[in-house]
Write a structure and sequence with these properties.
It is a single chain. The protein has three helices and eight strands, in the order H-H-H-E-E-E-E-E-E-E-E. The mean pLDDT is 88. The chain is α+β, with helices and mostly antiparallel strands. It is elongated, with a radius of gyration of 24 Å. The chain has one domain. The chain starts with 10 loop residues before the first helix and ends with a strand.
């Protein structure tokens, strides 16, 4: 005599559940990646603002109103956190260049494509002594760049 009270799910029921989960994942994953990218870009902007504040503090105190500091020096003086002082944070690589003459200016750049950094951002950000932060051009054709402590805007737009 057969037992008609079988427990469990049939193969078809399990396949339907797996397909539904796959569809939900296909919809959700791009949104999660976009959220992560936006969060990393916001973190990069915030880090550049932190660097600017730290540079202003360093310039007025340790720098004797004559010079700015490298990322490592800002970290050593406790003006920025050690992660940022190491040159990478939240999927962005940070590079600080000082004006070659007397270190009386600086330029800081945040780039998601820095070698050794697994970035999820799309835009490049950079700021200088003035405190204005620039972002990649809206069409993605040009990025702000630092060279010898001087910011080259290349059609980039300031962040409002």
């Amino acid at each position: 005599m057969k037992n008609t009270n079988q427990n469990g799910f049939s193969l078809v029921e399990l396949l339907v559940v797996v397909i539904i989960i796959a569809i939900v994942a296909a919809i959700a994953i791009p949104s999660l990646l976009a959220s992560r990218r936006a969060a990393n870009e916001a973190s990069a902007i915030s880090s550049l603002r932190t660097i600017h504040s730290a540079q202003a503090t360093y310039f007025g105190t340790t720098g004797g109103n004559t010079s700015y500091a490298t990322l490592a020096q800002l970290g050593t003086d406790g003006l920025i956190d050690t992660t940022l002082a190491g040159g990478a944070k939240s999927g962005y690589g940070f590079v600080m260049t000082l004006v070659a003459v007397s270190f009386n200016g600086y330029c800081a750049e945040a780039n998601p494509t820095t070698p050794g950094v697994t970035g999820t951002g799309r835009r490049v950000f950079a700021g200088q002594t003035s405190g204005v932060i620039y972002q990649s051009a809206p069409d993605g054709t040009s990025d702000p760049q630092c060279a010898a402590g001087v910011l080259t805007i290349n059609g980039s737009t300031p962040i409002q």
